[in-house]
Amino acid sequence: MEKLNENQIAERLSALNGWIFENDAITKSYKFKNFKEAFSKMTEIAFECEAQGHHPNWENVYNSLTIKLNTHDVNGITQKDFDLATTIENIVNP
After folding, report:
1. How many CB atoms sit inside 10 A of residue 16's CB?
2. What sections of the chain are H helices per DSSP?
């Protein structure tokens, strides 16, 4: 996978609602109705992460979920991160 430069990252971010680039990761926070809904979406996302062989850094507190994506193998952002972000968007906002 090829590491993307800042211009490529900015271009791809424009297609993802609410995702930002900070601290060498693309990041988004979600709010859900309650913990059960948050955990349910995390479970759906986990299965897709496993299928794509790409695993996020994430934090869950009650009804909130923050996801941070980067590709550790290249120490940066790749298309793989954007593919997973798109998948996550489709799960959370079908």
Report:
1. 15
2. 6-13, 35-52, 79-92
